[in-house]
């Protein structure tokens, strides 16, 4: 039997199969690698295109072309649907374009997947503020303060707090405003303009004592700062220290005759301080006779103010006031009569407040003097 007539050995067949299998495996691997490479290349090109569209959108938004920016951001999101940065930018552009409802929908989708997203919560707060939903907006501002920020978290949270502080000041939310101010008091900017603003914010928060501390520290560094004197005047006025307020406003006007403090011209506040001091029986340096004269003047003024009660005045108080105005008081009884007059004037004023509309002007000198007397 010749060698060629022998059947192939099992070892030979097995080797051929292994070679064939290896070639097929190599071919498959090469195809897979090629497909993977092409897919990654396509994915990379898509990301580059999405980034290009996003950058275009940002430039358009910066230039005020918000509607066109919306389109670019949407195109970018068609490529990268899960990109949170693109979604945030889209919401910002939608709000700028007046599409608040669309912006709210975009942000809701973001916050459903991550409720701690700081920038998204801030944007939602701004959207709700635009829609006039103030309380909801404040809630989202708080979430933004305590939310997660990818970059420079401390600085961003501080900026959100300042934005919230401005919002609360506009809404006259004194307790909430004071809480936020106290939270960032040690982180306030140190320049004079920022410190003056802080003082005015403490005034708006109903904390004139803290405001006065801020203004005094400014004056320690800049003794000729008219704005600080005007702010200090407002602080002293709010605390009922009209003598100190008078001096503060005089200093402010001496340094800058055109100075304004908040919405009130310092000159008007000085005039009001002067009127209160001219009416107040508790002013230092006046004698018993002058205190009594002023107390009787207060009775007459409150009796006149109570005329708005119409046909149903508190007759007992009215009769008592009329008697007090006609009473002859000895020198020894001046102090007692003064106290009785102040008490009577206070009761008449309360009757006027509760029984007459509109409410008296909060800057009415009569009301200010009586409020101070009641607090003593």
Write the layout of secondary structure elements.
Layout: H1 10-62, H2 66-79, H3 84-96, H4 100-113, H5 118-130, H6 134-145, H7 153-170, H8 174-184, H9 192-204, H10 208-221, H11 226-238, H12 242-255, E1 260-261, E2 264-265, H13 266-279, H14 288-305, H15 315-326, H16 334-355, H17 365-375
Antiparallel strand pairs: 1-2
Name its key features:
two-stranded antiparallel sheet, mainly alpha, single chain, Serine Threonine Protein Phosphatase 5, Tetratricopeptide repeat, 376 residues
What is the CA-CA span between the terminal residues? 135 Å
Largest sheet: 2 strands, antiparallel
> Care to count the β-strands?
2
Specify the helix fraction band: over 70%
Q: Give the SSE order as H and E letters.
A: HHHHHHHHHHHHEEHHHHH
**Can you count the helices?**
17
The fraction of residues assigned to DSSP E strands is under 5%
Nearest-integer average pLDDT: 88
Which stretches of 5+ consecutive residues score pLDDT under 50? none
């Amino acid at each position: 039997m010749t060698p060629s007539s022998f059947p192939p050995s099992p070892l030979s067949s097995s080797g051929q199969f292994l070679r064939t299998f290896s070639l097929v495996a190599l071919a498959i691997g090469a195809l897979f690698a090629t497909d993977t490479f092409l897919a990654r290349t396509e994915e990379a090109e898509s990301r580059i295109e999405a980034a290009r569209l996003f950058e275009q959108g940002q430039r358009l938004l910066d230039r005020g072309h918000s509607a066109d920016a919306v389109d670019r951001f949407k195109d970018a999101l068609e490529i990268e649907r899960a990109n949170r940065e693109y979604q945030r930018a889209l919401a910002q552009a939608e709000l700028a374009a007046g599409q608040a409802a669309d912006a709210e929908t975009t942000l809701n989708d973001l916050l459903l997947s991550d409720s701690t997203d700081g920038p998204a919560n801030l944007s939602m707060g701004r959207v709700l503020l635009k829609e006039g939903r103030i309380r909801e907006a404040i809630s989202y501002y708080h979430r933004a303060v305590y939310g997660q920020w990818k970059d420079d978290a401390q600085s961003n949270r501080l900026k959100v707090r300042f934005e919230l502080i401005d919002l609360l000041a506009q809404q006259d939310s004194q307790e909430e405003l004071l809480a936020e101010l106290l939270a960032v008091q040690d982180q306030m900017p140190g320049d004079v303009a920022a410190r003056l603003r802080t003082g005015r914010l403490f005034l708006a928060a109903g904390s004139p004592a803290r405001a006065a501390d801020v203004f005094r520290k400014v004056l320690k560094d800049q003794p000729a700062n008219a704005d600080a004197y005007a702010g200090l005047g407002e602080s002293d006025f709010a605390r009922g220290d009209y003598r100190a307020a008078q001096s503060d406003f005089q200093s402010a006007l001496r340094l800058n005759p055109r100075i304004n403090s908040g919405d009130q011209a310092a000159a008007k506040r000085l005039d009001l301080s002067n009127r209160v001091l001219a009416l107040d029986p508790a002013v230092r340096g006046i004698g018993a006779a002058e205190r009594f004269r002023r107390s009787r003047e207060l009775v007459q003024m409150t009796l006149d103010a109570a005329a708005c009660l119409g046909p149903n005045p508190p007759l007992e108080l009215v009769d008592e006031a009329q008697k007090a105005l006609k009473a002859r008081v000895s020198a020894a009884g001046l102090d007692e009569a003064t106290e009785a007059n102040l008490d009577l004037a206070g009761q008449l004023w309360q009757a006027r407040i509760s029984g007459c509309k509109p409410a008296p002007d909060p800057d009415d000198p009569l009301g200010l003097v009586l409020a101070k007397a009641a607090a003593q």
